[in-house]
C-alpha cells in the first residue's frame, strides 16, 4: 500500500523512501532484519547508503529450546505476538511435535552462530542483547542499548511497551517433554551398544 501511495518502483526505492524524514521524527531510523536480509542490503550497497554509521543490536534468546517451542506453537496458532488472537482454523488443538521443535532449535542455534561470525567478519559494531536479561531487567537492559546507540539520556518508559509474554503452561509442558524425549533418543543407542 505504501509503495503504491508513493510510487516506489523497486525495493531499494521503498527502503530509501521509508528511511526519509517522513517516517523519522528525530532523524533516526531503525530496521529489523534477518541475517539474509542484512546480507542482501550490504551486497546491494543499500546498507551503507541507509546506515553509513550504523550500530547493530543482535537480539538473542539464550534458551533455544523455549524459543523453538514458542515458534512451533505460533505456527499452529498463528499468534506471533501477544497482540494477535489465536487462529485455530488449521489445527483443532495445539499439538506437541518433537521433530519440529528439534528442527527449529537447531536452526536458531546455527543462525545465531552465523550472525556473530558474519558481523565479526565484516567488522560491524554490535551489541548482544539476551531476551532473558531484558525480561529480568528491562530498565537496565534498555539503558545498555541506549548507551551503545549513543543515546544515554533517552528515557525508558515501560508503560509504552505494547507486547507481553505469551508463554504459558503449554509452553512449559512442551519444553519438558522435548528435553525428556531428546535425552531418551540420545541415550538409547549408547545403552544398546553396551548390551552388545
Structural notes for this entry:
The structure is a single chain. The protein is mainly alpha-helical. The chain contains nine helices and two strands; from the N terminus they run H-H-H-H-E-H-H-E-H-H-H. It has helices at 2-6, 11-18, 35-44, 46-50, 64-77, 98-121, 131-136, 138-148, 169-195, and strands at residues 56-60, 126-130. Strands 1-2 form a two-stranded parallel sheet. Helix 5 (64-77) crosses helix 6 (98-121) and helix 5 (64-77) crosses helix 9. It is globular and about 55 Å long. It starts with a helix and ends with a helix. The model has no long low-confidence stretch (mean pLDDT 85).
Strand content: 5-15%
Per DSSP, the total helix count is: 9
**What are the low-pLDDT stretches, counting only 5+ consecutive residues below 50?**
none
Structural class: mainly alpha
SSE string, helix = H, strand = E?
Answer: HHHHEHHEHHH
Distance from N terminus to C terminus (CA atoms, Å) equals 66 Å
- Provide the helix percentage: 55-70%
**In total, how many beta strands?**
2
Main sheet, how many strands, which sense, barrel?
2 strands, parallel
The side-by-side strand order for the widest beta sheet comes to 1-2
Q: Using only CA atoms, what is the Rg? A: 21 Å
